[in-house]
Each structure stands twice: as structure tokens, then as C-alpha cells.
Amino acid sequence: MSHLDLLQYHAFCLTNTGSRLSQYERAIAASVRKGDAVLDLGTGSGLLAVLACRAGARRVFAVESSDAIRLGELLASTTAFAERITFIQAPSSQLVLNERVDVIVGDIHDTFGLQPGGLASLFDARERLLRSGGTIIPRATRLMVAPVEAPAFYAREIDIWTTSVHSINLTPIRPFAVNHVHAGRFDREQLLSSPTSLDVIDFAHATSLHVGGAATLTIQRDGLVHGLCGCFVTTLADDIQMGNVPGDSSTTNFAQAFFPFEQPVSVVAGDEISIDIDSHDGHIVRWRADISRAGESSYARCDHSMLDGLLLTPRTLAPSQIVLPSFPVSESLSGRLRAHPSVLSRELGGETVLLNLDSGVYYGLDAVGTRAWNLLAQERTVADVCSIMLEEFDVSSDILQRDLTALVQELRAKQLLVPVASELS
Predict the structure, then answer these.
(1) What is the pLDDT of residues 352-369, one digit of tens each?
(2) DSSP secondary structure letter of residue 160
């Protein structure tokens, strides 16, 4: 992010915010006691750090990894609390304090509840830096979703890629737009059902970076579903909330999240839509929807993945240097394997990109590696896969077995393949 981008982003965060900052001020005043030590996670402009001092904090540790920390230092210097605030430019995961704090405060929100990476940062700070019984602001976030009719927005964000520019067809780019989450602002009247809850994240107790969930809603009026509207309601402290639900978003200036469908779907009142959204630490991984008519089978489905929106091919993924663990060759040959449950895969033109959501590791496979992966992920042994591929490829048994064993070693080292559970004991 350029310095101009930082200025514009923080101007957005500090102006036209609805009552978001007032809600934070109330929550901080209700949670911070005189003499408390406070950690302001991702302080940015430093505003929340100043509000914590105003509430009585003895010391505020204001951590920020970007150059926006300079904004915080400048703004805090104009207040009476400059001596109480310690600004630290570093990733919060590298932060070491000489005391545990009483309160952690952070604005880690985005259109669908959480900034990418915000959950991991909060969990890390909670476990390492917060005293037992300490307070976290916010306390919890509820993720919500509803089908939305948005023809103008869809035309601008998605169908722009069905046009031509100087006789050049833009259509090949459209799949990438369809597999991205977009920020949009929607009215309550555009929703085709009332928003429903998918998940509630309790920041004091949650441990999983995987959030999201499934829900089934009833369509309340005839219309055209262009996608899903994702939104949130956050509890900052007792009876103090903020959110961006369409029609009830005065407590924040956040837009809503838009999860597009490949094609709009015509629906009538009484239809049911089953929705499933999977997110990993604020990164939307996958969204699916299934639409059916009462008493009938599904008549429309969508299934979108962040991997399909990435401008990646296996050839663009640089191999990383790793130290392979010592898996016995006999084990590699005889043990049955499966894809790690946190692995997503995308096949394009016979090649495959793999992503481990837990580690963030990407891995590219060529056409032969893709065939091996597809077989190995079906709980087959290397020996079984070798037998199958010997019938399909003109290669000697020794070379194929050697190459497959090496591939398995690396896929296991990167936690992309794991042994079948029944064979772990």
C-alpha cells in the first residue's frame, strides 16, 4: 500500500463512519479501568489508543506493522496522552511486552466481518499478551448472509467482462471476477430474504481460523438472485454493537460483501436457498448455493472458490526449498494417503494448483503430477497409483516409482497429503 493509499484509507476510517467510532468509544469507556494496560492491535491512526487513555489506561501499547504508525504518532502528539502511548512498528506476532495487558482493543473488521489475517493476530495476542480474565474489544462477531438482487452492481462488476474493447473480447477474464468477493452497498429492499446467521465468533474463546457455516433461507418475493450479500453484527461490549446489515448499517461505514453467482437465477416467493460459506482467517475460501422449489429437487446451483479467482498457474509457483522429513520408502509405497482436509485444489488446462489453508502453502503440479494427485487423493497407495499410471504413460516402473515416491515425500512434507486416519495408529 502506497503512502497515499494509507492516507486515503485512514481518511475513510476516520470520517463518515456513522456511529462506529462512538460505539468504540463507549465500549472502551465501559471496559478500560483506571490503571489498566491496553494493547491497541493494528493501531493505524492511533485513535483507539487515545480513547483508551481517555478512559483511564495507564499505558497503551499501540502496535502497527505499516507506515501508518507515523500517523498515529503525529495525532497522539497533539493530545495530553502522548507519554502514555508506546508506538511499536512490527507485526503483532513479533511483539514482546514486559507485562501482560488488561485489555486488547482492535478494529479488525471488513465487509464480511473480519480483515484477512485479523483472527490469527487476535488469537496470538490473546494467548501471549492478555492476562487471565482480561477483556477483548470486540467480544464477538456474527456473520450473516442473504440472497440479493443487484442488477446494476452485477453489470458493473461482473458483466463488464462480457464486453469487447477495440474488438478484443474480454469474456476470458469473467471467471476470475465471478470467483472474487466484491465490496458493494445494498439496500434492504434488494434482499430477497431476511439475513440469517452463519456463524458467531467469540473472540475470548474461539480457537479455529476456519469460520463460516451453512443455512437455508426461504425466498420472500419474486426476483432475480445475482449473488449473496454478506454482512456482520459485532458486539463490542455489553449492549454496544455495530454492523453493516443492509437497512441497519448506521453504526459503521463498511460496505457489504457480495458473493457473485456465475449467472443470475430467477426465483419466486417460497423457493428455498441453501447457502454454505467457508472462510479462513478472513480470506473467503468458498461459497456455494443450492436453490430449490417446494417439493421439488434443486434447479440451480453455484459453487465458487477463491482459487478460481487467483491469477495463478502451476508454472508461476516458484518451488520452495524445504527439508523433507524422513518418511520410510516402504511406508510411502504401502500406506494409503488422502488430501489434507485443509487443502483446496484448482485444475486448469490439465494442471493443478494446491493451497493448504492452514499453512498458506501453494504448490503447482504439471499434467503428470495432476494425474498422480487425483489418484493419490482417493486413498490409494503409491504402489496402486504406480500400477495404474504404468498403463497410461510410457515410462519404466523404476523411474515412475522413484518419481512418485519423491512427489509423495514433498506433498507430505508440505502437509498437502496425509496418511489415512486408520493407518496412523
Answers:
(1) 888 887 777 778 888 888
(2) G
Task: Name residues whose C-beta falls within 8 Å of residue 50's C-beta, 6 or more positions apart in sequence.
Answer: 75, 76, 79, 81, 85
Computed from CA positions of residues 8, 14, 18, 23, in that sequence, does the dihedral angle turn out positive or negative? positive
* Lookup result for grid cell 443487484: 150
Give the distance, in angstroms, between the CA of residue 319 and the centroid of all CA atoms in the same chain: 25
Q: What is the DSSP letter of 149?
A: -
Please provide the CATH number assigned to the domain covering 141-309.
2.70.160.11
Q: How far is CA 213 from CA 37, 61, 145, in A?
A: 36, 35, 10
Q: Name the one residue in this structure whose C-alpha cell is 469460520.
A: 211
- The string of pLDDT tens digits covering residues 391-416 is 998 888 888 888 888 888 888 888 88
Q: Letter for the amino acid at 93? A: S
Q: Tell me: domain 3-107, CATH 3.40.50.460, correct?
A: no
For Cα atoms 138, 143, 145, give the angle at the middle one, nearest 5 degrees: 155
Backbone angles phi and psi of 292, in degrees to 5 = -140, 160
What are the cell numbers at 187? 439496500
What does 392-423 look like in DSSP terms, one character per residue?
TS---HHHHHHHHHHHHHHHHHTTSEEE-GGG
Which own/partner contact pairs does 368-376 have at CB distance under 8 Å and 24+ positions apart? 368/393, 369/407, 372/404, 372/407, 373/345, 373/411, 376/337, 376/408, 376/411, 376/417
Among 2.40.10.340, 3.40.50.300, 3.90.930.60, 3.40.30.10, name the CATH number for the domain at 314-423. 3.90.930.60
Residues 157-216 pLDDT 10s: 999 999 999 999 999 999 999 999 999 999 999 999 999 999 999 999 999 888 999 999
Cα–chain center distance at 306: 9
